[in-house]
Write a structure and sequence with these properties.
The chain has helices spanning 3-6, 17-26, 31-46, 61-70; strands at 10-11, 71-72, 77-83, 89-94, 100-107, 112-116, 119-120, 138-139. By secondary structure, the protein is α+β, with helices and mostly antiparallel strands. The strands form three sheets. It has a four-stranded antiparallel sheet, with no helix packed on it. The chain has two domains: 3-72, DNA polymerase, domain 1; 77-139, no CATH class. Helices cover 29% and strands 24% of the residues. It contains four helices and eight strands; from the N terminus they run H-E-H-H-H-E-E-E-E-E-E-E. Strand 5 and strand 6 (112-116) form a beta hairpin. The longest helix has 16 residues, at 31-46.
Length: 140
C-alpha cells in the first residue's frame, strides 16, 4: 500500500481551484493539462452537482480511478432543522465521519446574523447551541 492510499480519503467538495490543481499535480497529471482538468472537475462539482467521481465522464477512466482512490465527493447532510416563531432557523449538519455541527440564522428587521460552526464541538458551553453542548473534537 502506498503512503497516499494509507491516508483516509478527503473530499474534493469545497476545494478551490488552486487546491484542485494541487490534487491533480499530486497524482501526476501533466502540468499543461491541469487547468483544463480543474475546469472540468469544477463544472462537474458545482454546475452539474455530481455525487460520484465515476460520473465525471469528460475525465478519462484512469484519472477518475486515481481521484476515487484518494478522494470522495462527500457533502454535509441535514440531520435536523428547527424553525422558531421569530424565524430563527437552526440546522444540524452531519459530517462524513458521523460528527455533527450546527448553523443558526437569526433574522432581524434590518439584517440577519448567521452563526456557522468552525469546529466539531466547542469549549464555550453555550446552552442554546447544539455544538456548544459537545466537547471539542476538532477544527473543520
Amino acid at each position: 500500500m502506498s503512503p497516499l492510499s494509507a491516508q483516509p480519503p478527503s473530499s474534493l467538495v469545497g476545494l478551490n481551484r488552486t487546491a484542485l490543481k494541487q490534487v491533480l499535480a499530486d497524482i501526476g497529471v501533466a502540468e499543461k493539462e491541469q487547468n483544463m482538468r480543474v475546469r472540468q472537475i469544477w463544472s462537474w462539482l458545482y454546475v452539474h452537482g455530481v455525487q460520484d467521481i465515476d460520473k465525471m465522464t469528460t475525465l478519462s477512466g484512469a484519472l477518475r480511478n486515481q481521484l476515487a482512490e484518494r478522494h470522495t465527493l462527500e457533502r454535509l447532510s441535514i440531520s435536523e432543522k428547527q424553525v422558531s416563531e421569530d424565524g430563527t432557523r437552526k440546522y444540524l449538519f452531519k459530517l462524513h465521519d458521523g460528527h455533527e455541527i450546527e448553523t443558526v440564522y437569526i433574522p432581524e428587521a434590518d439584517r440577519g446574523t448567521l452563526c456557522i460552526s468552525s469546529q466539531v464541538g466547542c469549549t464555550l458551553n453555550c446552552t442554546f447551541c447544539h455544538t456548544g453542548t459537545m466537547r471539542l473534537v476538532r477544527n473543520l
